[in-house]
Amino acid sequence: MTAAVLLVDDERFARTVYSDYLRQAGYEVQVADTADAALEELRRRRFDLLITDIILPGADGLELLGEAKRLDPNIEAIVITALDRVDPAVRAMKSGASDYLVKPVTPEALQVAVQKCVSARALLAENKVLRSHLRLFETCQRITASLDHDRAVDLALGALSRELGAHGALFLERDAGGRLVPSGHTGLDQAQVGALAAAASARGGVRVRVPVRVSLEGGASTAPALILPVAGDDGTLGAVCALVDGDADDHQIRSAEFVCSHLALALRTLGHLKQVEHLAYLDDLTHLYNTRFLELVLEREIQGGRPFTVLFLDLDRFKTVNDQHGHLVGSKLLVEVGRVLKGCVREEDIVARYGGDEYVAVLLGIDSGGALKVAERIRRSMEDHVFLSREGAKLRVTASIGLASYPEHTTRKDEVLDLADRAMYRGKRSTRNVVYIASRDLPPVPAR
Predict the structure, then answer these.
(1) Fewer Cβ close by (within 10 Å): the C or N end of the chain?
(2) Residue of higher predicted confidence among 78 and 403
(3) In angstroms, how far is CA 43 from the centroid of its own chain?
(4) What is the 3-state secondary structure (H, E, C) of the chain?
(5) Nearest in space to 97 (alpha carbons), one of 208, 186, 8, 198
């Protein structure tokens, strides 16, 4: 690209000689004879280099240089003057000049000075682009390394807004039904979110530029929106919709797509981690939750302060089943018990296998009065159910159940489970097939 030079000198001969020489050297040259005329040119368009005399009509060249630097901090500058003194040179350099030439200036000296300034500006521009690429790469690394969904989305939307110069951006994620639903946004109000979501959903999240009716700070009622898919090898995971000022160039589009690809990678990774994490909280045999997840639930509910009740259930005489029918039948029975338990509680309640033939149910938002009814429903369901009928075993099994409520019986996580266990064990030592409510005077449970 040809470098653009603004040459300012009140001497017509100097303007003619220097401009002719620079044009012959391949530069695009615009001339001005006063500081005011030069400022008009600087405000009208961008220049790579300003060459100015110090002494000008109306204002000196150093004042012009200061204003030029205010308009474009990256503009290069050469000061030319007939004053062969140190003080003006020092002031010129402090004002931002890259070089200082004393008249008469030879073509060779001018060429060297101009070439040095143009090369420096090109190098600075290249470094700026490299820094931009590095910043984008580092941001994308943070996106893919994030183990938090919302954090990854926020990083991606921030990067997209910067790269596209957008007013704001919205991420829409595909739900289980294949619909695009808002899953994070930046720089947008709720009306803009709704308008962008409708536009992206109507076009299926494919890459497209569409006009969207939104209210902007400048009062515009219609603004261009850029929709980009967030897709991986396993299909489209969602879409990004950004409000932009105008047509984004190819470089901006490529940068935005680079961000989208890393967001897709982050979402796939988080999906895999969620699957693995889910498996880590499941009992291998029954596929109910395990004690690891039970601990998390109890901690979460106590921190939330909402009442809940723990039911501790133990099968009566389960050892007899193993002895008479074998451990394989016993294992199948444990699986079916889990299904019966799940059928007796709500979807939001937690059912876990505690170990062996013991189960724990956490009834969320329910006190001991309501939990007693649920426990009795479980006891009767177990008593009435014919287990392994399809396998021909047709077994009957009962259960002893103990319950303890938070905060009615205790406010401690470990104690609420222990009190429910003690209540269950009281039933085991009495008639079995019974429900008992926790009491602090119950003796500790013997070691199993």
Answers:
(1) N
(2) 403
(3) 40
(4) CCCEEEEECCCHHHHHHHHHHHHHCCCEEEEECCHHHHHHHHHHCCCCEEEEECCCCCCCHHHHHHHHHHHCCCCEEEEEECCCCHHHHHHHHHCCCCEEEECCCCHHHHHHHHHHHHHHHHHHHHHHHHHHHHHHHHHHHHHHHCCCHHHHHHHHHHHHHHHHCCCEEEEEEECCCCCEEEEEEECCCHHHHHHHHHHHHHCCCCCEEEEEECCCCCCCCEEEEEEEEEEECCEEEEEEEEECCCCCCHHHHHHHHHHHHHHHHHHHHHHHHHHHHHHHCECCCCCCECHHHHHHHHHHHHHHCCCEEEEEEEECCHHHHHHHHCHHHHHHHHHHHHHHHHHHCCCCCEEEEEECCEEEEEEECCCHHHHHHHHHHHHHHHHHCCECCCCCCCECCCEEEEEEEECCCCCCHHHHHHHHHHHHHHHHHCCCCCEEECCCCCCCCCCC
(5) 8
What is residue 426's predicted lDDT score, i.e. its pLDDT? 93
Alpha-carbon distance of 98 to 58, in angstroms, equals: 24
Rounding to the nearest 10 degrees, give the CA dihedral for residues 262, 265, 270, 275: 170
Closest listed residue to residue 359, CA positions, set 403, 395, 396, 321: 403
Amino acid at site 131? R
pTM above 0.70, yes or no: no
Number of other residues whose CB lies within 10 A of the CB of residue 420: 29
The tokens describing 210, both together, are 């569409």
- Backbone dihedral angles phi then psi of residue 96, each to the nearest 5 degrees: 115, 5
Task: Give the amino acid at 122.
Answer: A
Determine phi and psi for 68, rounding to 5 degrees: -65, -40
pLDDT at residue 294, rounded to an integer: 94
What is the maximum alpha-carbon separation in the chain? 118
Question: For residue 156, what are its two tokens?
Answer: 């991606």
Strand positions, DSSP E, 165-207: 168-174, 180-186
pLDDT in tens, 212-235: 766 666 555 677 888 888 987 667
Average pLDDT over residues 173-190: 88
Summarize the chain as % helix, strand, coil (round to 5).
50, 25, 30
- The structure tokens listed for 19 are 């401009």
- Spatial separation of the C-alpha atoms in residues 397 and 406, rounded to whole Å: 29
Q: Name residue, tokens 């501790």.
A: 312
